UniProtKB/TrEMBL annotation:
<feature type="domain" description="TPM">
    <location>
        <begin position="19"/>
        <end position="142"/>
    </location>
</feature>
<dbReference type="Pfam" id="PF04536">
    <property type="entry name" value="TPM_phosphatase"/>
</dbReference>
<protein>
    <submittedName>
        <fullName>Membrane protein</fullName>
    </submittedName>
</protein>
<dbReference type="InterPro" id="IPR007621">
    <property type="entry name" value="TPM_dom"/>
</dbReference>
């Protein structure tokens, strides 16, 4: 366990996420998700967590493991076509993780998701958080449209609103 990581998480607590992602930005992110879901039958969720605390932090839980927990907790896996995708941002670690259900993950693969994550992280390093998230949502939506194009009406199985933890 790194003392530096613990300090970063304790100092950059949850206020940072609300500062970078005020309600107006969250509303625009939600609209980007809605626009994408018009083109495909997949489900996209975006979660930003300012910092880990408690047990996850002191167990030194990596962002990927935390993203898997959030994926499960929000039931992103619970879609008719197994094509739910979670975009998870852990601000304190400056780490983006994409967790995809087996239906879409088998088609895009780790390398495809990593490419999207790295592009988002590059935008974040330049201070362009809103643009980075929206670009990431658009990239995920293109993959979903390619492999799960919308065919007729379908229910919106998961909420489109971003989650700030």
């Amino acid at each position: 366990m790194s003392i530096k990581r613990i300090a970063r998480h304790l100092v950059q607590h949850h206020w940072r996420a609300k500062q970078i992602f005020p309600q107006a930005v969250l509303d625009r992110i939600e609209q980007a998700i809605k626009r994408g879901e018009v083109t495909h039958s997949g489900q996209v969720r975006f979660v930003v967590e300012g910092a880990l605390d408690g047990r996850p932090l002191f167990r030194n839980q990596p962002a990927r493991a935390r993203a898997l927990d959030v994926f499960s907790h929000l039931r992103v896996w619970d879609t008719a076509h197994n094509n739910g995708v979670l975009i998870y941002l852990l601000l304190a670690d400056r780490d983006v993780e994409i967790i995809a259900d087996r239906g879409i993950d088998a088609k895009v693969g780790t390398e495809g998701w990593e490419t999207i994550c790295r592009a988002m992280e590059a935008e974040f390093r330049l201070g362009r958080f809103e643009g980075g998230v929206i670009s990431g949502i658009e990239a995920v939506s293109r993959e979903l449209e390619k492999h799960f194009p919308k065919q007729g009406p379908h229910a919106n199985e998961l909420p489109d609103a971003p989650v700030v933890m």
